[in-house]
Amino acid sequence: xxxxxxxxxxxxxxxxxxxxxxxxxxxxxxxxxxxxxxxxxxxxxxxxxxxxxxxxxxxxxxxxxxxxxxxxxxxxxxxxxxxxxxxxxxxxxxxxxxxxxxxxxxxxxxxxxxxxxxxxxxxxxxxxxxxxxxxxxxxxxxxxxxxxxxxxxxxxxxxxxxxxxxxxxxxxxxxxxxxxxxxxxxxxxxxxxxxxxxxxxxxxxxxxxxxxxxxxxxxxxxxxxxxxxxxxxxxxxxxxxxxxxxxxxxxxxxxxxxxxxxxxxxxxxxxxxxxxxxxxxxxxxxxxxxxxxxxxxxxxxxxxxxxxxxxxxxxxxxxxxxxxxxxxxxxxxxxxxxxxxxxxxxxxxxxxxxxxxxxxxxxxxxxxxxxxxxxxxxxxxxxxxxxxxxxx
Length: 392
Known about the structure:
The chain is an alpha/beta fold. The protein has 13 helices and 15 strands. It has helices at about 20-35, 60-70, 90-100, 125-140, 190-200, 220-235, 250-255, 265-280, 300-310, 325-335, 335-340, 360-370, 375-385, and strands spanning about 5-10, 40-45, 50-55, 75-85, 110-115, 145, 150-160, 160-165, 170, 180-185, 205-215, 240-245, 285-290, 315, 390. The strands form 2 sheets. Strands 1, 2, 3, 4, 5, 6, 7, 8 and 9 form a 9-stranded mixed sheet that branches. The chain has a 6-stranded mixed sheet with strand order 14-13-10-11-12-15, sandwiched between helices. Strand 11, helix 6 (about 220-235) and strand 12 (about 240-245) form a beta-alpha-beta unit. Its EC number is 2.8.1.4. Belongs to the ThiI family.
């Protein structure tokens, strides 16, 4: 027998007070959008702190569960049987039918846990627990009651209808995407930035992305790799507008005019400036990077401060305190790792000085940037006006 309904539980949304309905509506919209990508017809509804999904046609259970697991805001997924309230005797029959149909092997311990959303129901929760427990024991003698650590927690929720379920599948948690504004992710082909985008999206932030490529020094395969990474992140974040910036002329100009030990810092400062411009145009209010403090020369405290000085926008760095293995663990969990480690060059890895400065002095960096004044603004304007946009 296949479950025809799902109870969708949320966590943080439940403490949102008078604005809670806005977050619930956003979550319902996310669920409807995600289910469009799987086979089957579904109805999504909400009722007094509960969100329900009902299948109105055949569907693939595993495919639906995987879709739910990519929706931020879902704390748990409970496949369930939902029945009409046709009286107490009918409820007993429905519970017995549930146990019989979904548990071929009855050799388990169980506990009945009843909640009455409908306080007018004539039998209280404790009495329902006792009656249903006794009923199941008599009907299936192999079962045993264990109120402390049962194998099966048999949930009965009495509301307008009655929900019966015993499986709870963890969801990704977080907040529905779009409930906390929008930010621009600086996306490279590495491991870190896709993880950073995933983590900020989990906090309800809608994301767009910008990728800097440098043809012919970086290839079309390197660009496609980043497009593929954006598509993988979009499974969780929703559609991503990827802005692909041709950075070659800017990078060559910096290489020609600035001290080579400062190349990485100055290059990143111009990436931040361009990202800020694109963010402003797309309605984003912050930048996201995948920097982890101390990981490379451009990620020391002094380097990050020099980079931040190039922008007035807040810069979110959700993996700043992670070590590499912790970032890898998340990338494997969300499915970006295998793509991130494909061996294609990145514009951040070319024109790299042998001995980059690790403790840059901001005044010296700004003085070096004065060497670019003749035509850097023209190059930046050209780079922005020729941005390639890809919907991922």
